[in-house]
Amino acid sequence: MPWSPHAALLRDLVLGVLGTAAFLIDLGADLWAAGQYVLSGRYLWAALVLALLGLASVAMQLFSWVWLRADPAGLHAPQPPGRCLALLHLLQLGYLYRCLQGLRQGLLVWQQEVPSDFDMAYADFLSLDISMLRLFETFLETTPQLTLVLAIILQSGQVEYYQWVSICTSFLGISWALLDYHRALRICLPSKALLRLGSSVIYFLWNLLLLWPRVLVVALFSALFPRYVALHFLGLWLVLLFWVWLQGTDFMPDPCSEWLYRATVATILYFSWFNVAEGHTRGRATIHLMFLLSDSILMVVTWVTHSPWLPSGVPLQMLLPVGGVCFLLGLVLRLVYYCWLHPSCRREPDRVDGTRDLCSLEWRQLPQNRRMAQLAQNFFPKTRDEAALPWKGEVNGVL
To answer: Structural domain boundaries of the chain?
Structure first.
């Protein structure tokens, strides 16, 4: 059954609240784990947890600040002065400010009996940026944090209660970010049907089932060879960064910040697939899948030839089949999704969820998040909606 307009707006508002709460809970769990490591004298583990948190937070604040500076003047009015915004981002509060701004706009739209087109478009604009920042945070902090916790558990041979909390919150954050990002991409394109329950479940499962073996592989490698995992990541990251550069990405407003985006995408590609350019998507996805699979197989061969047992006494024979089954099942579900659940037909736009008619001049004068629209066109290559693409010379936001 389709959602009524008012119910759909309330749903979006509740999802925004839950997404912000999930971020805060995951942050609290990581800080709690770092504190417990310090109290138990494991200072290196605490330093690694805090380093991952710090690097991801700095990158997220930089993205948020660059986007705010690139948006047209007056788009986000009223908002704090530039110095206050700079201070918020310096204090690592820029993402939370965006979350509160999005919730406030969503509440404003929900309270209106007949929401205006501008208010709804601006609410979509804010939610799309938040979804992108959440995805970056997921692969810059949450996924590496999960890998680190698993490596610590495998190496020590015991699981503390706070580590269970960290694992659960990490899985929650990853799952939420993947679904929210995919839903955001569909909002950008009027020719794409919204994410339904069945396709949501399949999309979530194949992403998680393909991501989990990769996380397990890196965690096992870290537990067995903790001194070489940094070299392994750096070597693959440089290769992936070069590959992203060859694709000619043009996501950020200036060349310097574009390298920040490419470095972030290279980190995402270390764990999962992320499409950054249009055309030949299937070929690039296949190359990436084979690249990660080959790397994982090489690490498995290294474990088997050097040490068939983990330091904690857990046999690899118990873990490797689990990872292999998850990978195969995820691959099957991915094929099912793209063959039958990945829509490519046009439909009438639904004004409730932000997929409005982009052909009208009135709509072109409303806030449009062209950053996400460009990624959406790359993600959905079958049916191109030229009206949703940025015009040459346009800036992101209000024309």
So the answer is: 1-195, 197-304+316-343
Nearest to 345 by CA among 287, 302, 384: 384
Q: Helix crossing, 117-137 with 255-271: angle to 10°?
A: 60
126, containing H or E segment: helix 117-137
What residues form DSSP beta bridges with 397? 368
CA distance 309 to 155: 11
Spatial contact of 126 and 101, defined as CB atoms under 8 Å apart: yes
Q: Do 261 and 252 meet the contact criterion of CB atoms below 8 Å apart?
A: yes
More confident residue, 356 or 171: 171
Whether the bond between 315 and the residue before it is cis, its omega within 30 degrees of 0, is no
Mean pLDDT of 199-216: 86
Separation in Å, CA 48 to CA 24, 58, 241, 252: 19, 15, 23, 29
Tokens of 231: 């070299």
User: Rounded to whole angstroms, how far apart are CA atoms 226 and 260?
Assistant: 27
The predicted pLDDT at position 396 comes to: 52
Q: Which amino acid is at 120?
A: M
pLDDT for residue 9 is more than 70: yes
Distances (CA, A) of 154 to 205, 270, 302, 382: 25, 21, 17, 43
What torsion, rounded to 10 degrees, do the Cα atoms 380, 384, 386, 387 define? Answer: -70
What does the block give as tokens for 103?
Answer: 């919730």
**Confidence class for position 348, pLDDT limits 50, 70, 90:** very low
pLDDT score, position 390: 46
